[in-house]
Amino acid sequence: MNGPDIVAAGRADDAPLEEDFEVAAQRQSPWRMTVRRLLRHRLFLMGLGLCSIILVAGVLAQVITQTDPTRLAMRWRFRAPGQDGFIFGTDNFGRSLWSRVVWGAQLSLYIGFSVVALNAVFGTLIGAAAGYFRRLDNALMRVNDALMAFPAILLAIAITAVLGASTFNAILALSIVYIPRTARIVRASVIVLREMEYVQAAVAAGAGHWRILRRHILPNAMAPLIVQLSFLFAYAVLSEATLSFLGLGAVPPTPTWGNIMAEGRQYLVEAPWIITIPGIALMITVMGLNLLGDGLRDVLDPRLRIQQ
Amino acid sequence: MWGVVLRSILGSLPVLLIVSLITFGLMRFSPGDPAAAIAGMSVTSEQLELIRKDLGLDEPFLVQLVKWYGGLLQGNLGRSILMGQDVLEVTMIRLPVTIALSLYALVLTLVLGLASGIIAALRQNTVVDQLAMVFAMIGISVPNFFLGLLMILLFAVHLGWLPTGGYIPLSQDPVGWLRTSTMPALSLALLQMGLLARITRSTMLEVLRQDYIRTARAKGLPSRLVVVKHALTNALIPITTVVGIIISLSISGAVVTESLFSIPGMGQLLTQAVLNRDYPMVQGGLLLTTTFLVLVNILVDIAYALLDPRVRYERS
């Protein structure tokens, strides 16, 4: 009997070794493994649940609301939640809060998605350029540092002051505020990946910069970016609410959670639901996104994981 | 040591330069005519010309730029259109209010955030830990103006313990200051508290797993000593770097908190300036606030170097 056979003989065929399991696990696509791990993460699922509520409300706003969120009906003013068939009550103009909060969800999601999308594109471009091309690094990062030195909301309100208050300008202002933060995270991953042996190998094999970035570096820089973007979504929703609370977001009568609360401020005592309901909606959204972010970080980025 | 100080000061210079350029450009490159925006609808072309002249907008771009920096060097940031006062002067009156409020919030953040983070780490995976982390999660998810409104509703309207708003300077009446500042500071601190508790917990857990902690325990040191002397001092080092971020968040948060509680600080000043298109005030206020934060970060860098000998030796 020669060597390998002895090994084979010493091992019962019906009892696979531990290595076999690992090999089998590796054969699964990384995406499926990630999804499976996420679905086992309790907090992630909770976040998913909270976000789904808001997402469904926002997407189906047209279907699930009967009244126009901007329609005034003075004889129905200040109905408490549940009174006269108004689920969430009405505001000082008799507008249905259910309608307004649901449409507000749509706007919040729209702004959040837009800021995240702009960050994904420009944050990646700037971060990758700075991390990969050493010559650009210094210049790009100094501008980045300067933009990050401003207190976030303050810069956003200054930009909206110059551009004027509108939904589009709020998206633009929040993107300018947050893109440097995203770029910094992408840059950090790219700098590490740039020095990896497989990247050197690709360089040696004659691959161009574009190909190296696209095929070898950026796919591996995605995990921290995705985590960042999920938290960013939460910041964007929160900051937009702050801007419109200050009167610098979407212009009334367009309902946003922030401007509903700003209007409700004057009726804090008589009609506390006007601020409480959009406030809770905002809280559900932000908490849901934060939980999603925590879950994604635990699963995608083991280095940052808070030890469970 | 001095190397670190010098390095962090020199490193901040380009940042400040670019910050000042951005604040300058923000107004000059705004779409449309800033003078028209300031003047409003009904205005004659002579009045418009006057505003333009007053703001220096009639001059070539480079002249404006040189004048802007010349002014900065002399501490002249222009005049607030809304208040008719020197921007620097107004800021110097308003900034201390915001700083006092932010410091109060910082103390609350440090005490409550650190404590809950440390306790959560020491009682990892227990009910205490989970409760602390649930509160931290709520902290980072509740908008500060919502918390502020809820507190006004509870403590001012229903219980009548605290005033709904207004401000009494610390120097005038410390008790009155506490009464007017506690709700704003709490609503301001909540987010940072949650962040700090989470960071402290994870840093502590990291440190508690180190070999030197095991050694300290193995040689029979009392648990309290291990936690305070060996674990906490080392965990605090990375946490110092967060202080700069916490102060920046406080100042950002103060914008809305001050408006909510009618506190006459920088945040309220800038919000008013923005709503009234008082460009010189926005520009100057933004620049001064950011400069203040850059200075805070220099101090944080130095503190970090003082606390961590590795940084001190590596860089000098």
Can you tell me about this structure?
The complex is a heterodimer of chains A (308) and B (316). Chain A has 13 helices and no strands. Chain A is mostly helical and 308 residues long. Mean pLDDT of chain A is 82; it is low at 1-15. By secondary structure, chain B is mostly helical. In chain B, 79% of the residues lie in helices and 0% in strands.
Layout of secondary structure:
The complex is a heterodimer of chains A (308) and B (316).
Chain A: H1 3-9, H2 18-27, H3 30-40, H4 42-59, H5 61-64, H6 97-132, H7 134-149, H8 152-163, H9 167-194, H10 197-204, H11 209-245, H12 257-264, H13 273-300
Helix pairs in contact in A: 4-6, 4-13, 6-7, 6-9, 6-11, 6-13, 7-9, 8-9, 9-11, 10-11, 11-12, 11-13, 12-13
Chain B: H1 2-28, H2 34-39, H3 45-55, H4 61-73, H5 87-122, H6 127-141, H7 144-158, H8 174-208, H9 211-218, H10 223-260, H11 266-275, H12 279-307, H13 309-315
Helix pairs in contact in B: 1-12, 5-6, 5-8, 5-10, 5-12, 6-8, 7-8, 7-10, 8-10, 9-10, 10-11, 10-12, 11-12, 12-13
Backbone shape of chain A: elongated
Radius of gyration of chain A: 25 Å
Reported for the largest beta sheet of chain A, the result is: none
Oligomeric state of shown chains:
heterodimer
Q: H/E element string of chain A?
A: HHHHHHHHHHHHH
Strand content of chain A: under 5%
Large-scale geometry of chain B: globular
C-alpha end-to-end distance of chain A: 49 Å
Task: Please state roughly what percent of the residues of chain B sit in beta strands, choosing from under 5%, 5-15%, 15-25%, 25-35%, 35-45% or over 45%.
Answer: under 5%
As residue ranges, the low-confidence spans of chain B are none
Helix content of chain A: over 70%
Helix content of chain B: over 70%
Determine the most extensive contact between two protein chains.
A-B, 44 and 58 residues
Order of helices and strands of chain B: HHHHHHHHHHHHH
Biggest sheet overview of chain B: none
By DSSP (H or I, 4+ residues per run), the number of helices of chain B equals 13
Class from secondary-structure proportions of chain B? mainly alpha
**Average pLDDT reading of chain A:** 82
Counted beta strands of chain B: 0
Mean pLDDT of chain B: 84
Task: Please report the total strand number of chain A as a whole number.
Answer: 0
